[in-house]
Design a protein that fits this description.
Elements (H helix, E strand, L loop, with lengths): L2 H5 L7 H9 L13 E6 L4 E6 L9 H17 L9 E6 L4 E3 L4 H9 L3 H19 L7 E6 L2 E3 L1 H6 L4 E5 L3 E3 L13 H9 L1 H9 L3 E3 H7 L4 E3 L4 H12 L3 H15 L3 H15 L4 H23 L1
Parallel strand pairs: 2-3, 3-5, 4-6, 5-7, 6-8, 7-10
Antiparallel strand pairs: 1-2, 8-9
Helix pairs in contact: 3-5, 5-12, 7-8
């Protein structure tokens, strides 16, 4: 069996799903060889399940961004009309209790100390390009689903906002902590929360530095389905099952909504450039707060690796 498939972990106890992945030789095999993303294809629903499986901190490090860029290219080229069918694209995480902590704070601190605006902008633009393609569902007639089974903070929360639907376990948490060290979320939060919630509600969420529960996100309309702890994958399967008969309508409705948003990559990139300029104004005490968060994330990654 392909080594990439061997490394992939089956969904819960569903060994059949794992077997289906290995049978679909028409799928670009490079999808199963990505370093920090585990990918599984489910025949019966034409669903591609992907789980972030980071080597270190559960953040969008450059290696993780590289895998996402490659992941999107392979899906765009390998799926669709006349190719492998794809109706649902699901993203979750293998990291216990964490969906994603978001941006690579260790890299940010280094770039800020080196006064490297170009490096900050380049990182932000890469994130925005990935976000933009996900917002467009990679130009495929599919629904995208974010599966949250832990903490989705900073850029992890921002990334989820680009999915058509979010399924979250009740123990999941959400937040945008950037303001605590003098920064703001720069890769999609302003543009997407403004369009989803309105200006006042978006500003409150961005500036609050509060951690929100899955129930609170559900009440805001940002989370679409709630699941009991440990039941997130099954909840996704049930969501897919009930969406099957209305798939075309859901895809069309989401495309119409995104057309009405009129959100362009240029807007995302410009906000990222504002973020980079603000980052270069951070004081030493702000960088120390950022560094403490990096250390906390590193300790968590070590505990997960040792488990």
């Amino acid at each position: 069996m392909d080594s990439g498939l061997t490394r992939a972990i089956p969904l819960s106890d569903d060994e059949e799903l794992f077997a289906e992945s290995s049978r679909n030789t028409a799928i670009p095999q490079e999808l199963f060889d990505l370093e920090e993303l585990d990918v599984l294809y489910e025949d019966r629903n034409a669903a591609l399940w992907t789980f972030m499986n980071p080597e270190g901190r559960p953040s969008f490090t450059p290696p993780m961004l590289h895998d996402f860029e490659r992941w999107q290219d392979l899906i765009s080229n390998g799926f669709g009309e006349g190719k492998v069918p794809l109706r649902y694209l699901i993203l979750g995480s293998r990291c216990p209790d964490v969906f994603c902590f978001g941006g690579d704070l260790a890299l940010f601190e280094q770039l800020i100390r080196n006064r490297d605006r170009e490096g900050l902008v380049n990182y932000g633009h890469r994130c925005c390009a990935i976000l933009d393609r996900n917002l467009r569902s990679l130009d495929l007639p599919m629904l995208t689903i974010g599966l949250v089974q832990g903490a989705a903070l900073g850029g992890g929360f921002e990334a989820l906002l680009s999915f058509d639907f979010i399924v979250a376990e009740r123990t999941a948490t959400f937040g945008l902590p950037e303001i605590m060290f003098g920064l703001f979320p720069g890769m999609g939060a302003h543009a997407l929360l403004y369009r989803k919630l309105g200006s006042a509600a978006a500003e409150k969420l961005i500036l609050s530095n509060e951690t929100y529960t899955a129930e609170q996100m559900y009440e805001m309309g940002l989370v679409h389905e709630l699941a009991e702890p440990g039941d997130g994958i099954n909840a996704c399967k049930q969501f897919i099952k009930k969406s099957e008969r209305r798939h075309a309508g859901l895809v069309g409705s989401r495309n119409a909504m995104k057309y009405a948003w009129r959100l362009k990559l240029e807007e995302l990139n410009r906000i990222t450039e504002m973020w980079a300029d603000t980052a270069l104004e951070l004081r030493e005490q702000d960088l120390k707060v950022m560094n403490r968060l990096v250390a906390a994330q590193g300790r968590l990654a070590e505990r997960v690796a040792a488990a």
